[in-house]
Structure formats: structure tokens, C-alpha cells
Amino acid sequence: MHILNGTNQLCESLGITSRQLDYWITRGHLDLEATTGRGSGKARRFDENDRVLITTFATLVKAGVRPQSAQVIAEDLIEHGEALLGPYTLTARKVGAQA
């Protein structure tokens, strides 16, 4: 699988800190296939699946969804193309797809 970004590049593109990403990973909010070390000071490389999960998760958290809920919602969106958020159904669409 093609490796897309290291931690700093990915975090910068999402507007989050590497510390925030590390916190989410160490707390178990993100189950990733990242290669190499865990924790501060350890280099990580993220594949395309990781990047999609992190991007979806971070977007939900920035919108005010609790990390525990964002994890489930992000996984449902990726796996099933939709997820429930309270009384709303969120629907995923492919990048570049017309609305």
C-alpha cells in the first residue's frame, strides 16, 4: 500500500497538532495501520486508509463531536457510506463527486 504522509505533513494539512494526533492514537480513538513507532518522537507513516480515517475523525472532532463518538461515526462513514449523528444521517461521498 502506498505511503502518503508523515505525521507533520498530515497534521499540518488538517490543522491539528502532532500532539493531538498522538493523543487520539494513544487513547485508542484511532485504530491505524501506521508504520513504525508509537508516541512522541517516533516517526509514523500513514497509508491512504489511515489518512481517510484521520481526516474524517479530525473533521468530526473540529465540528464538536466527542472523540468517542467521532471514532464510531468515522468508521461507519468509511465502511458503510453513512452514519447516524443524533437525529441526522451523515452520508459520505467520494472526493470529486458532484453534490
Notes on the structure:
The chain is α+β, with helices and mostly antiparallel strands and 99 residues long. It has one domain (3-91): Orthogonal Bundle (Multidrug-efflux Transporter Regulator, Chain: A, Domain 2). It is 46% helix and 15% strand. The protein contains 4 helices and 4 strands, in the order βααβααββ. A two-stranded antiparallel ribbon has the order 1-2. Strands 3-4 form a two-stranded antiparallel sheet. The longest helix is centred in the middle third of the chain and has 15 residues, at 48-62. The radius of gyration is 14 Å and the shape is globular. The relative contact order is 0.14.
Short description:
With 99 residues, this protein is an alpha+beta fold. Helix content is 46%, strand content 15%.
Helix content: 40-55%
CATH third-tier fold name: Multidrug-efflux Transporter Regulator, Chain: A, Domain 2
Radius of gyration: 14 Å
Unreliable stretches covering 5 or more consecutive residues: none
Q: How does the major sheet shape up?
A: 2 strands, antiparallel
Number of strands: 4
- Class of secondary structure makeup: alpha+beta
Give average pLDDT, whole number. Answer: 81
CATH class: Mainly Alpha
**Coarse morphology:** globular
Q: Give the name of the CATH architecture.
A: Orthogonal Bundle
Distance between the termini: 29 Å
Q: Can you count the helices? A: 4
- Domain count: 1
Residue share in β-strands: 15-25%
**Secondary-structure element pattern, one letter each:** EHHEHHEE
Widest beta sheet: strand line-up: 1-2
